[in-house]
Write a structure and sequence with these properties.
Blueprint (H helix, E strand, L loop, with lengths): L19 H18 L3 E2 L5 E3 H7 L5 H6 L2 E3 L5 E4 L4 H10 L9 E10 L11 E10 L4 H17 L6 E6 L3 H19 L4 H9 L10 H6 L12 H16 L5 E2 L11 E8 L8 E7 L3 H4 L7 E7 H11 L11 E6 L1 H16 L4 E3 L6 H11 L3 E6 H6 L1 E6 L4 E6 L3 H9 L1
Helix pairs in contact: 1-5, 1-11, 5-9, 6-7
C-alpha cells in the first residue's frame, strides 16, 4: 500500500481550496440569505461541548451518540465532544443567554463544521459543513412552514431543480410510544434475528429499523404499520396545518409517512430534502420539531423547530445538475507594473481602488510583461492596467479591457474615477 502524503488531511476531513472553496462560500451565503430576510440572527457556536449535553439532548440510544461522536478528555479530565450537530448547542446557548425571556419566537442561524466518526465516502465525511436554523418559543405550525420554505428558497436560489421535499410527522410522545410498542411486535417475527444491531434497534428504538437502507430490510418492512395510523387529534391537526401553509407558500412536497429521523428529540413535523442524483447519500438537508429538547437538557419548556442543510452534499447536487455557482474573480482590476517607480505607483493605486470597494491586485515579483499578463488573465479581472516608466513620465496608464481586447490611455489622476464608472 502506498504511503500517505505527509501533507494529506486526516481521513474523512476534506480540504477546500480555491476555486472549490469559493463555491462552498457561495452555497453558505445562499443558504443564509433567506434567513436574514426572515429575521434570523447569527449565532456563533462552540466547536465542542460537554459530552453529557449531547447524550441528554440527542439521545444515548441514537447511532450519533453511541457510535459516531469524537469524544476526548481535557486536562481537567472533563469529557468533551466535537459537535456532531448544531441544534442541541443552539438551544443550550439560547438558554444560557436567557433569550427565551425576551420576544418569541427566538430566531437563530449558524454555520460551520460538524464531526461524526463515519466510514468516509462520497457525501459522507468525518468533518462536514452545515448551515443550521432554529426557531424557539412557539409551536405554531405556520413557523414550521416558514422554516421549510426558507430552506426550499435557498435551494431554488442556487439553481437546483430536482430536489424533492419529503414531509412527515412523528406525532406527540404518547403517539410515538403507542406506535413503538405496536411496531416492535410487528418487527420481531419479520426482521428479528437478522443481526445483533437490528435486534437491538427493535427493542430500544424500533422506528430506527424503518430507516435501515439495506434492501432486505426495506423489503421486509414495506408493509409495516404507519405512525399516521395512531396520531392523536392535536398532532394530526398540526400536521394538516403545516401542509396547508406549505401549499399556500407554493412549496411542493411529498407525503412520506415512513420518514424517520435519527435523533431522539424530534416530534411532530419532520422533513428531508432529497436529491435523486446523489445515490445512497441523497439527503442534502433535513430537520423537524423538537418541543421537548429544552427540558431534556434541564431547561424550561421551550418548543422549537429547526433544520440543517448540508453544504458539502449541496455542492455535490449542484455538480450533478451542472449548476455549480461560478467562482467570483479574484480581482476586477489587475496592475502590470514595469519598473520600480511604476510598481510603487501601482501599489498606491491598488490601495486606493480597494478603499472604494473595487477588487484590485497586481503582479508581484517583478515579472516581465508576458508573465504579468498571464497572471492578469488567471485572476479573472475585467481590466488590466499597464504602467511603465514612460507612462509615468506622460502621467497616464494603459487601460486594457480584457473582455473586449481594447486598450486606451487614461490620465493617472482620472484612473480610479474611470474604473469606478466602467465597473458600476
Amino acid at each position: 500500500m502506498a504511503a500517505a502524503s505527509p501533507h494529506a488531511s486526516p481521513k474523512g476531513v476534506p480540504d477546500y481550496v480555491p476555486p472549490l472553496s469559493e463555491h462552498l462560500l457561495a452555497v453558505r451565503e445562499a443558504m443564509a440569505a433567506p434567513l436574514r430576510l426572515a429575521g434570523y440572527g447569527y449565532l456563533e457556536l462552540p466547536v465542542f461541548e460537554e459530552t453529557a449535553l449531547f447524550a441528554r439532548g440527542v439521545g444515548e440510544t441514537t447511532d450519533v451518540v453511541s457510535k459516531e461522536m469524537f469524544t476526548f478528555l481535557d486536562r481537567g479530565e472533563r469529557s468533551l465532544t466535537l459537535r456532531p450537530e448544531g441544534t442541541v448547542g443552539a438551544v443550550r446557548a439560547a438558554l444560557a443567554a436567557g433569550l427565551e425571556r425576551g420576544a418569541l419566537p427566538v430566531k437563530l442561524w449558524y454555520a460551520g463544521p460538524m464531526f461524526r466518526y463515519e466510514q468516509p465516502q462520497s457525501g459522507r465525511q468525518r468533518q462536514f459543513t452545515q448551515v443550521g436554523a432554529e426557531a424557539l418559543g412557539s409551536d405554531d405550525p405556520a413557523l414550521d412552514a416558514e422554516l421549510v420554505a426558507l430552506a426550499d428558497a435557498a435551494y431554488r436560489s442556487l439553481g437546483l431543480t430536482q430536489t424533492v421535499l419529503h414531509l412527515a410527522t412523528l406525532g406527540d410522545p404518547e403517539d410515538r410510544s403507542d406506535y413503538s410498542a405496536r411496531l416492535r411486535e410487528w418487527l420481531r417475527p419479520r426482521v428479528g434475528g437478522l443481526d445483533a444491531e437490528t435486534d437491538r434497534r427493535i427493542e430500544v428504538n424500533p422506528l430506527r429499523v424503518l430507516d435501515d437502507k439495506r434492501p432486505e430490510v426495506r423489503t421486509a418492512t414495506a408493509d409495516a404499520p404507519l405512525l399516521t395510523d395512531v396520531l392523536g387529534p392535536a398532532a394530526r391537526a398540526h400536521h394538516e396545518a403545516v401542509r396547508g401553509h406549505l401549499t399556500d407558500l407554493g412549496v411542493p412536497f411529498v407525503d412520506d409517512p415512513r420518514l424517520v429521523r435519527g435523533l431522539d428529540y424530534y416530534r411532530r413535523t419532520t422533513f428531508e430534502f432529497i436529491h435523486p442524483l446523489l445515490g445512497a447519500q441523497s439527503t442534502i438537508g433535513a430537520g423537524g420539531r423538537y418541543d421537548g429538547l429544552s427540558q431534556a437538557i434541564d431547561g424550561p419548556p421551550l418548543p422549537g423547530i429547526g433544520w440543517a442543510l448540508g453544504v458539502d452534499r449541496t455542492l455535490l447536487a449542484l455538480e450533478a445538475e451542472g449548476v455549480l455557482p461560478a467562482a467570483p474573480p479574484r480581482a476586477q482590476v489587475f496592475f502590470v507594473p514595469l519598473g520600480a517607480a511604476a510598481k510603487a505607483r501601482s501599489v498606491a493605486l491598488v490601495g486606493e481602488l480597494r478603499r472604494v470597494g473595487i477588487a484590485a491586485d497586481l503582479a508581484y515579483g517583478d515579472r516581465g510583461m508576458k508573465g504579468a499578463m498571464k497572471a492578469a488573465d488567471r485572476s479573472g479581472a475585467a481590466y488590466a492596467v499597464v504602467l511603465g516608466e514612460r507612462d509615468l513620465e506622460a502621467g497616464a496608464a494603459q487601460l486594457k479591457d480584457l473582455r473586449a481586447h481594447a486598450q486606451v490611455s487614461v490620465p493617472l489622476d482620472e484612473l480610479v474615477r474611470r474604473l469606478r464608472e466602467d465597473l458600476r
